[in-house]
Design a protein that fits this description.
Layout: H1 13-17, H2 25-35, E1 41-42, H3 57-67, H4 70-84, H5 100-113, H6 127-140, E2 156-159, H7 161-173, E3 179-184, H8 190-198, E4 201-205, H9 217-229, E5 233-240, H10 252-264, E6 268-272, H11 287-291, E7 298-303, E8 317-322, H12 334-344, H13 350-359, H14 370-396, E9 401-402, E10 411-412, E11 415-416, H15 425-436, E12 438-439, E13 441-442, E14 455-458, H16 463-481
Parallel strand pairs: 1-12, 3-4, 3-5, 5-6, 6-7
Antiparallel strand pairs: 2-8, 7-8, 9-11, 10-14, 13-14
Helix pairs in contact: 2-15, 3-5, 4-5, 6-13, 7-8, 14-16, 15-16
The structure holds pyridoxal-5'-phosphate.
Length: about 475
């Protein structure tokens, strides 16, 4: 090789072939347009704080105190001054001070970790956080001594976001190139990309769009039969509830059907429940709750990135496992293998762990931070719903557009029933970006039934921004499809 030649190295083809449309060619084009001075609206990704959603004060107060414990004493002194000499601190009000409740909680967190945030923790996360997660799950699922099955802290892994948990399971399940995992179409491309990277087979199943993205046993059986005939050894089924990109919300009966299906066919279930707080006009029911004492392996995922929290950048989540299987030909449990996987990367980041702890430990009614916490939470959730409604109203004014299902997660996934001859949803989204600055993702990036076209839009921009861009989008649309 001479000095002018670049070195070429063979790489893992699975990584080369992986696709992730959420950060694909359309967002890349948006980045170029920004460099050229255009203002774009990044609705390609569920990243709420990028749109100015304010972090929940309670979380950030604890976070700052735990990161810098010296502030705890300082804040206590200020509280004492406030109590004894209100005038000395005139111009400030109660919310300018950190409550004793928050100070005590931060201090107790530090005592429990013993080592603070700057050291590695246990690979699966500190036990006291995993215990808090187990209590949260039991409370959410109304488990008590006479009803339901309790979560086991030893079967919980704190992760760098839910993505890491999903990757761990899929990496473990794909043992051979014929091993397959069933995923909904459309799906969040973490799943297709991870299956591809692991070298396995993606087995598609298709929730019924016209029936509000409903799912039933025969849809699953049909997809499984098809895969088996193709020689695929199907190992598990992924369910995203509430759905990304569809927003679809599964009811208890459907969850029961998925569990029965998995049981009959000896499959594991991967339940991605990161949007469990983003449910409008319906109730979230967890897979763990419906599973009860059924012996089907269940891997459930949750995250600090979504809901009303939106702490995507802090990378926190957990994986909870029920009925962990044993490794074939070996007496080792999946728990031990996942622990080994986790230990190779030492531990998840400790700030994410703290936020997971806070997510599962909301302030109790009557406590000092309660009111502000509930007000902030409700205002974020209401705002998201209002924005979804605004976009739905905009879609109603567009020719041949239909948007099915209830409002869940952070996205709408309208179907574009009419496009100019030869044009795809990718072309539509690219043109929409160029004309209006609105950055959406083409339906084909998530998978869709052949012959259909969609786009996904995150309902995160401010109402003001939507007021401005929706008329532009409607005008663009009605011109584009009638070309
Ligand atoms: C369905 C689904 N699962 C998982 C994730 C990733 O979550 P995290 O940020 O916790 O890795 C996302 C992110 O958008 C998602 O939509």
């Amino acid at each position: 090789m001479n000095n002018n030649q670049e070195l070429h190295i063979a790489v893992n083809q699975n990584i080369m072939e992986m696709e992730y449309a959420v950060r694909g060619p359309i967002p890349k084009r948006a980045a170029e347009l920004i460099k050229q001075g255009m203002t774009t609206i990044p609705c390609n990704i569920g990243n709420p704080q990028a749109f100015g959603q304010k972090p929940i004060s309670y979380y950030r107060q604890v976070l700052s105190l735990v990161e810098d414990p010296s502030k705890i004493a300082r804040e206590r002194k200020l509280n004492t001054i406030l109590k004894h000499n209100i005038d000395a601190l005139s111009g400030l009000n109660n919310t300018d001070f950190i409550s004793d409740h928050v100070l005590n909680l931060s201090e107790s967190f530090l005592v429990k970790t013993e080592i603070g945030l700057g050291a590695y923790s246990e690979s699966n996360g500190p036990l006291f956080i995993r215990e808090a997660i187990a209590r949260f799950i039991d409370k959410r699922d109304e488990v008590d001594t006479s009803h339901g099955v309790s979560a086991n802290p030893d079967n919980i892994f704190i992760t760098n976001g839910a993505s890491e948990g999903a990757r761990r399971i899929i990496d473990l399940l794909i043992a051979d190139k014929n091993d397959g995992i069933m995923i909904p179409i459309p799906q969040y491309p973490l799943y297709s990309a991870t299956i591809k990277r692991s070298g396995g087979v993606q087995v598609n199943y298709y929730p019924d769009e016209d029936d509000g993205w409903s799912l039933n046993r025969s849809i699953l059986e049909e997809a499984l039969d098809f895969a088996i005939k193709d020689g695929v050894n199907v190992k598990g089924v992924v369910v995203i509830n509430p759905g990304n990109p569809t927003g679809g919300i599964l009811d208890e009966e459907t969850i029961r059907e998925v569990i029965d299906f998995a049981k009959k066919n000896s499959l594991v279930i991967i339940a991605d429940e990161v949007y469990q707080e983003n449910v409008y006009g319906a109730e979230f029911v967890s897979f763990a709750k419906v599973l009860g004492d059924e012996k089907v392996p269940l891997f459930s995922l949750h995250s600090i990135s979504k809901g009303f929290i939106g702490e995507c950048g802090h990378r926190g989540g957990y994986l909870e496992i029920r009925n962990p299987p044993k490794v074939l030909g070996n007496d080792v449990s999946f728990i031990d293998v996942i622990l080994k996987q986790a230990s190779v990367s030492l531990c998840s980041n400790t700030v994410g762990q703290l936020l997971v702890y806070l997510m599962v430990n909301s302030p109790e009614e009557g406590s000092a931070p309660y009111r502000q916490f509930v007000e902030e939470k409700q205002s974020i959730l209401n705002d998201l719903y209002d924005k979804a409604t605004m976009i739905r109203e905009g879609l109603n004014q567009m020719d041949a557009v239909e948007c099915f299902g209830r409002t869940g997660a952070m996205y709408l996934f309208p179907r574009l029933n009419k496009l100019p001859e030869g044009s795809t949803d990718f072309d539509y989204c690219m043109n929409l970006l160029e004309k209006t600055g609105l950055c959406t993702v083409n339906g084909s990036g998530f998978g869709q039934k052949e012959g259909t076209h969609h786009l996904r839009i995150a309902f995160l921009p401010s109402k003001g921004l939507l007021d401005r861009v929706l008329p532009e989008w409607i005008m663009f649309h009605n011109e584009y499809v009638n070309k």
